[in-house]
Amino acid sequence: MSLKYWRKIRLKLQPLTVVHDVGNLRTIDLSESPYLTELPDLSMAKNLVSLILRDCPSLTEVPSSLQYLDRLEEVSLHRCNNLRRFPMLDSKVLRFLEINRCLDVTKFPTISQNMETLVLEHTSIKEVPQLVLTGRLELLLLNGCSKMTKFPENLEDMKSLVSLSLCNTGIKEIPLSIKDMVCLRSLSLNGTPIKALPELPPLLWCLRTQDCASLETATAIINNDRLWHQLDFTNCFKLDQKPLVAAMHLKIQSGEEMPDGRIQMVLPGSEIPEWFGDKGIGSSVTIHLPSNCHQLKGIAFCLVFLHPLPSHDVYDVNFDYHVKSKNGENDGDDKVVFASQKRHAPLFLLVTCVSDHMILRYELGFVNRLRKYSGNEVTFKFNHHGVHSMVRKVGDEIRRPVELKSCGVYLHFDENLPADTDLP
């Protein structure tokens, strides 16, 4: 039995009191009930599995009887803006708890060691108890907890956490023990006042560091090869970029394996690194391919964007290349660089830039097409597709030149590469 059909009823207690057989309820969903101020005693709802109270702005507290429901697996309180108190939960099977945009919640809830997903975003919680970090937690989201200024120091026991998000908190320092979180794959630190990135877990795949205005150094992550497919330091104006740019160049020259066949990094500024030998003003650049293109292993681009960027839900950057052969004939093809119809790169995040930014990108696979044009002149013209929704439909795309301040191209050759080698 479910109470989901009561969700639009603008009453306080009547939806539950008219249900006589409360003991058989498995789901209570009173989401979007603007006049719901409190819940009755739920101690008899022994079979309750899910309690969903999303967008209930008048709700001020959840009954203490909730702690006696030992079959409760899921509790969601999203945008219950006036929620002040939340009981201790003793359910050994509780695996999902969400308290989101409840600014009056100031204390970290007592939870089971079996919790898997914990969302406590935009609350007034100040600290995370060490005990929380010793269970089966896989996802911990604390975004927008601005009064939280530090994170527990001892993270060695967090063996199961896969995703940690601390965006827009007041946390100034990431504990050194974070490197021991062996299962961590995603770490989000956007908008935090951190000054340095420590050594991070070796299997970390996604790192978000946009708008970290105090960030000065990130050299400790240079050897995290899995992160290089998408490093984004948008609006990190104090960051020492030179070690990162040098490390990218070295990784390209070393020929070391790249997990995704590419490197991408977003940085503030407009100065194209010196190792980009071919440079152009605006949205195109022309280069002359040498005669040894059979040894071409990869190609890197540096695009310097003017701000502000046009506002689109998705901002896909692509390029056309046009080859002028020795006899004056033209050939060409289209190649999507920073996005494809199956996967979008996060260039649309640059819409929020407050000054010029550049994207450095290196990839392997595209050079298979260029090798046959040894000795010819190639012009790269950069475009973008503005799409008005996340779902692509025929006719929705508008293709325009990207407004760039400048751009650069770097060709990477490997003298040991056999002539018939195809790159992934």
TrEMBL record:
UniProt key word Ubl conjugation: no
The keyword DNA repair is assigned to this record: no
Residues covered by the C-JID domain: 267-410
SUPFAM superfamilies attached to this UniProt entry: L domain-like (SSF52058)
Record key words, sorted: Leucine-rich repeat, Repeat
InterPro entries xref list: C-JID, LRR-SigEffector_domain, LRR_dom_sf
PANTHER family reported in the protein's UniProt record: LEUCINE-RICH REPEAT (LRR) FAMILY PROTEIN-RELATED, LEUCINE-RICH REPEAT-CONTAINING
Protein name as it appears in the record: C-JID domain-containing protein
